[in-house]
Design goal:
By secondary structure, this protein is of the alpha/beta class. Helix content is 32%, strand content 18%. Strand 11 and strand 12 form a beta hairpin. The two termini are 30 Å apart.
Length: 510
């Protein structure tokens, strides 16, 4: 029997929701997770077709030490739970003229190609990485893993250290320009900002910690794909006694002045939890699930991340010319990102990313074939706009196929066994992402740290949040952080009158 009055109801089985549920279950609470889709993971999802395995969202295992720390918090040893394969070279970058650059953690191997592109650039790369390392050390403990609950938290000792070390007021593109004259090299060491759905012109210089971590800590791939992370977290939750209801969409979160009372599901059933943790996209929760008087309208004043057009292709032959990760960086890289920030669906010459997982893990496709994922940045949905998504899909497809032809993979369209395509409306429909913004809220300075939505609603004292649109932001390991922070706050406040527990939560250090 599934209880109608759990201690905590988690809305959404994404990475943040799974992490929070596992922590709360380990603490002795009665936890239920409701999920609108048929399986867990949210954007970190999976589908299979004709022997091909596709991760629907993240395809890179980066920031491994952050994963390790968060899994340790759940009593999970990362090296036992995940079989990680090193990917090196980490990326193959392709420029407009067909020339390229391989990024590798063997820094010495990059000296000659970098010097051919720009004299003195190798030594400047080492300085850039050193700067990124300093920001990494400051960011992870003082910023990413920390719970900001009020503006005063930013001005504590660790908060002030973070401000001083992270260069939050400098833009990443500007920071890269201090080290590289070539726009190609600036793009080569800032494109990681696309992981957060934003342009390096908007991103704080703090994000130089990403290329640092990739070059120093490596890029990895879990055997079985990124969905293995979802499976590990779901197993941890089940072992902690958490119950799951799939294909159980939430219709409304009903609340009075200070607290959530009931949660109504689309099938007509009603749940009466003591606390609710919303892992659904926070702007969607505010705008669609809460009563209008409690939503506050703040989400409408925020900036959203970009979206993307994603192609999932089953190819009837192997593509030995590809590595696991290939990025096509046009010479007008920044202009293309400006175009979609300003409202265009696609730029005329967009950058794009190709992922061939079977190049590192042959289990991701059947022998003699290839699993291929292509991601093209796109603008998020704008209210009142009319779109021709058939045209957008065709333009994006032609652009990717032309890029592949440029590196010698010609006529690929004739070898496609099938195609699945996610467009911005797909992200909105599948995952309730407001405006189809694939990474939730943007990560501009005024939406980071204490300025980003935190782990609890400002007025509804038993409504908590986790996920990409909350602190610390988009990404798999950061979603795990958000889930842990929300769970810790629930446990700390469990005796508050507005929560009304049925039992005392055991003390678990989070």
């Amino acid at each position: 029997m599934v209880p109608s009055r759990p201690d905590v109801l988690v809305v959404g089985a994404g990475i943040g929701g799974l992490t929070a549920a596992a922590h709360l279950g380990r603490a002795g609470l009665n936890v239920m997770v409701v999920e609108k889709n048929r399986r867990a993971g949210g954007r970190c999802g999976r589908f299979s077709r004709d022997g091909h395995e596709f991760d629907t969202g993240p395809t890179l295992f980066v920031l491994p030490e952050l994963y390790r720390a968060e899994l340790d918090e759940l009593g999970i040893r990362m090296d036992e739970a995940l079989d990680l394969l090193a990917v090196d070279p980490t990326y193959r970058l392709v420029f407009d003229d067909g020339s390229g650059l391989s990024l590798t953690s063997d820094l010495g191997a990059m000296r000659a190609p970098l010097e051919r592109m720009e004299s003195g650039s190798f030594e400047r790369l080492l300085a850039y990485i050193e700067d990124g390392g300093s920001r990494y050390e400051g960011a992870i403990e003082d910023f990413v893993r920390r719970d900001f609950r009020s503006p005063t938290d930013l001005f504590s000792g660790s908060g002030l250290r973070a401000i001083a070390r992270l260069h939050l007021l400098r833009r990443h593109w500007q920071e890269a320009g201090r080290h590289f004259r070539s726009s190609r090299l600036r793009a080569a060491f800032t494109f990681q900002d696309l992981y957060m759905g934003m342009s390096p012109e908007d991103a704080p210089a703090t994000f130089s910690l990403l290329p640092f971590s990739e070059l120093r800590h490596g890029v990895w791939f879990p055997v079985g794909g990124m969905y293995r992370v979802t499976e590990v977290l779901q197993r941890a939750a089940v072992e902690a006694g958490v119950t799951f209801r799939f294909r159980a969409a939430v219709r409304a979160i009903e609340a009075d002045v200070h607290r959530v009372g009931r949660v109504a599901l689309a099938d007509g059933s009603v749940l009466r939890p003591r606390a609710v943790l919303a892992n659904a996209d926070l702007p969607y929760v505010e705008g669609q699930l809460l009563p209008s008087a409690r939503g506050g309208g703040w989400a409408r004043r925020r900036r959203f991340s970009t979206s993307c057009v994603s192609f999932f292709w089953g190819v009837d032959r192997e593509l030995d010319a590809l590595g696991p990760h290939t990025l096509f960086l046009p010479d007008d890289f920044q202009q293309g990102l400006r175009d979609i920030e300003e409202g265009r669906e696609l730029s005329d010459n967009p950058c794009f990313y190709l992922h061939a997982p079977a190049r590192v893990d042959r289990g991701m496709s059947r022998p003699g074939s290839e699993t291929l994922i292509a991601l093209v940045p796109a603008g998020h949905l704008r209210p009142g706009r009319r779109y021709d998504w058939g045209s957008v899909r065709e333009r994006a497809r032609r652009h990717v196929l032309a890029g592949l032809a440029r590196i010698g993979i010609e006529g690929l369209e004739a070898h496609l066994k099938f195609e699945v395509c996610y467009l911005p409306p797909s992200w909105r429909r599948r995952y309730n992402l407001s405006h189809g913004a694939a990474h939730g809220l943007g990560h501009q300075l005024r939406q980071l740290g204490v300025l980003r939505p935190g782990s609890r609603h400002p007025h509804l004292r038993n409504l908590y949040f986790a996920g990409a649109s909350t602190h610390p932001g988009s990404g798999v390991p950061t979603a795990m952080v958000s889930g842990r922070l929300a769970a810790r706050r629930i446990l700390e406040e469990w005796d508050a009158p507005t929560v009304r527990p049925t039992r005392t939560a055991s003390a678990v250090p989070l």
